Q: What sequence folds into this?
């Protein structure tokens, strides 16, 4: 018997160290649990609920649940896949996610997770919100239509860049991303494409200005292999379709 | 213009609708108003789709537009993609693309011309040539062609497939690819890709020649019918290269009148709005463009394969040029007004596309690594291209942040709107008038529309400017009971006037 602490994930033994969450231990062991608001560089947030797993038969977000010795965790069950698909479908209809015209298509984490969970159609009625694009910044644009409120840009700007440029305003269905200036315009901030906040968006909300579709179809991040093999957008370099640095 | 546009007294007339028009792209209908003695009093081609691209790209980043607007169409998306890309090139201050980028875009475009012309002729129009109008309607489609003429059907499928492969290799996908980027393209060809495309190309050229032989046979079988059916003298508009050659990717605007006299020539297409205006009619979602100096009555024109072959001085590839000369000899070098000649001209262009693809594939520039260039930003960009169905205008204005402020698209089929209406009126007058209407007779109306290869999905791209009409029609008699009209100014009124 080993002294190593472990839990089982879909029947597979996953070792962990004290302080790790189920998500961290699973990813370290090379087992993928779908997620959007989780990024290993930031404090877990638990808001998107896509990483929902059953821990000892109870629904929990894998990114915020501490791993414990002897736990039984289920992730790839049809019940959980169905819930994840539902969550993703709600994300898709709540914003305006027009994959056919989006420059992030093929290298978008939201799209890749949706494919991974088998989401083929939005199912729910679209909200079609009216959200103008903020192109006031000379280097970047923010397309609020594609924001899923993961708050990774909020956390990155506050915790890493020390600029606190982004915030979420409103509650519940009224919650939305804002730029932390009196004008609400990105152009009035000290935002830079080299900021961490410019590199963590899992969708096509924060984009480099004046360019798009640079990577040919067939060579984009998720064109050949799914996200459980390739990994997250934010962790990959530019040439593979990850975040770009000019 | 024909007197059949609007009946003087529509009250007592019977309404006959061909709805939907079959074997065309998109949805449209033709309505006829007929009196008790079977005389046609009114004939109109209505476009009943409603899109909205000009409106909903407002506020979007300019570099996204070529990929977004190509969704106007599933048959010729490359045309919209390239016309918008040319406009975007102007927005970023690019006058001349690197040779590799321009040649790869041209390759993409000729691939699309090939596949689009093939799908129209073989899948949609060939039953009109291969079967009699009196044959059962169930036979007059691509299924009937496959059953009775399997070799021709197979050629159509393979020609289309070849064109789609050219698009896939240059744009990444057969339909709705992303090969163009502001100021260029995102990939060059590899040697392997080039050799793959060369493999079947000679066969495509041979089939192009073969189908022209069939076309000539169809003409010789009944030259009178071919020449007169739906024929209308008209003006013609197209792009031509600086030396007068046929060029589908770039050039200046040339118009000829029905006598073949030049109205304007080598006009910089960025000045299109000075020479072309659009008229709105309350009974169609599609606008009616005309040459400004001639006015809407006389200024309407035709675009597309027939216009291009009538307008150009020569085709820059040998086999297609030989075919052009033979074609133009039909009217001693003067413009040919036969509407069925659109099919013939289209097949000459299909042949030309195979030759142009060969020239490009053998050009070492397509392997180049300088794929993108940039200049100084401007606020307005106009891209014009010869799409398979005719001259296509994309015009965009952006704000200081690079977001689309205004868009105006004049698509190929819209240019032919008046001409298609004139053609169906000619057919109605000459072939239907005074007869009891039967399905084969009504199909002749469709044959006239089909010759133009209209893409009705593309043609109804606008939103906000057009009037909307809702008609309540009694099912049995076809008599209109009520009609609500939303005018261009947005006001809704009840109307019996227009119908």
A:
């Amino acid at each position: 018997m080993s002294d190593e602490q472990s839990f089982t994930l879909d029947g597979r033994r996953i070792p962990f160290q004290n302080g790790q969450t189920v998500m961290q231990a699973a990813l370290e062991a090379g087992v993928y649990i779908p997620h959007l608001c989780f990024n290993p560089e930031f404090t877990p947030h638990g808001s998107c609920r896509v990483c929902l797993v059953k821990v000892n038969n109870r629904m929990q977000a894998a990114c915020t649940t501490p791993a414990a010795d002897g736990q039984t965790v289920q992730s790839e069950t049809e019940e959980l896949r169905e819930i994840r698909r539902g969550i993703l479908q709600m994300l898709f209809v709540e914003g305006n996610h027009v994959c056919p015209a989006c420059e992030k298509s093929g290298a978008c984490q939201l799209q890749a997770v949706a494919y991974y969970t088998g989401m083929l159609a939005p199912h729910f009625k679209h909200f079609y919100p009216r959200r103008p694009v903020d192109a006031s910044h000379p280097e970047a644009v923010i397309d609020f239509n594609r924001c899923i409120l993961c708050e990774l840009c909020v956390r990155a700007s506050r915790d890493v860049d020390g600029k606190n440029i982004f915030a979420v305003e409103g509650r519940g269905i009224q919650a939305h991303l804002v730029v932390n200036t009196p004008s609400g315009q990105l152009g009035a901030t000290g935002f830079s494409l080299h900021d961490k906040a410019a590199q963590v968006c899992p969708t096509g909300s924060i984009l480099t200005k004046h360019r798009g579709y640079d990577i040919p179809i067939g060579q984009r991040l998720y064109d050949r292999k799914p996200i459980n093999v390739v990994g997250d957008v934010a962790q990959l370099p530019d040439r593979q379709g990850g975040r770009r640095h000019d | 213009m024909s007197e059949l546009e609007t009946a003087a007294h529509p009250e007592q007339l019977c309404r006959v609708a061909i709805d939907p028009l079959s074997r065309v792209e998109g949805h449209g209908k033709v309505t006829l108003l007929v009196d008790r003695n079977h005389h046609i009093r009114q004939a109109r081609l209505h476009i009943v789709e409603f899109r909205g691209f000009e409106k909903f790209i407002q506020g979007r980043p300019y570099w996204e537009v070529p990929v977004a607007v190509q969704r106007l169409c599933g048959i010729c998306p490359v045309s919209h993609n390239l016309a918008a890309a040319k406009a975007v090139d102007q927005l970023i201050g690019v006058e001349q693309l690197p040779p590799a980028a321009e040649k790869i875009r041209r390759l993409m475009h000729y691939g699309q011309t090939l596949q689009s012309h093939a799908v129209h002729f073989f899948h949609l129009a060939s039953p009109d040539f291969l079967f009699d109008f009196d044959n059962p309607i169930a036979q007059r489609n691509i299924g009937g062609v496959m059953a009775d003429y399997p070799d021709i059907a197979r050629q159509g499928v393979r020609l289309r497939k070849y064109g789609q492969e050219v698009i896939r290799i240059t744009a990444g996908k057969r339909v709705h690819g992303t090969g163009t980027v502001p100021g260029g393209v995102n990939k060059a060809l590899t040697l392997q890709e080039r050799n793959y495309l060369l493999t079947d190309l000679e066969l495509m050229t041979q089939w192009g020649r073969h189908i022209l032989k069939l076309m000539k046979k169809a003409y010789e079988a009944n030259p009178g019918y071919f020449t007169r059916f739906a024929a209308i003298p008209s003006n013609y508009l197209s792009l031509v290269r600086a030396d007068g050659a046929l060029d589908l990717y770039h050039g200046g605007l040339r118009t000829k009148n029905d006598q073949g006299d030049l109205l304007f020539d080598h006009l910089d297409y960025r000045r299109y709005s000075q020479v072309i205006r659009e008229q709105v009619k309350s009974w169609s979602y599609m606008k009616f463009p005309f040459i400004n100096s001639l006015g809407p009555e006389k200024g309407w024109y035709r675009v597309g394969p027939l216009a291009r072959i009538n307008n150009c001085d020569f085709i820059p590839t040998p086999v297609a040029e030989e075919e052009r000369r033979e074609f133009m000899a039909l009217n001693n070098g003067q413009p040919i007004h036969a509407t069925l000649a659109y099919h013939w001209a289209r097949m000459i262009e299909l042949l030309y596309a195979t030759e142009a693809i060969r020239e490009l594939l053998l050009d070492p520039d397509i392997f180049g690594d300088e794929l993108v260039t940039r200049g100084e930003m401007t606020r307005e960009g106009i891209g014009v291209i010869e799409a398979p169905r005719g001259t296509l205008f994309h015009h965009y204005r952006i704000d200081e942040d690079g977001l689309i402020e205004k868009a105006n698209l004049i698509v190929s089929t819209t240019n032919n709107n008046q001409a298609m209406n004139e053609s169906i009126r000619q057919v109605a007058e000459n072939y239907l008038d005074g007869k009891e209407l039967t399905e084969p007779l009504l199909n002749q109306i469709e044959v006239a529309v089909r010759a133009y290869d209209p893409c009705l999905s593309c043609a109804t791209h606008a939103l906000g400017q057009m009037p909307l009409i809702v008609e309540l029609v009694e099912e049995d008699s076809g008599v209109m009971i009520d009609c609500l009209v939303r005018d261009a100014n947005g006001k809704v009124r009840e109307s019996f006037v227009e119908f």
Summary: Residues 193 and 246 of chain A are 7 Å apart (CA to CA). Chain A touches chain B through 23 residues (CB under 8 Å).
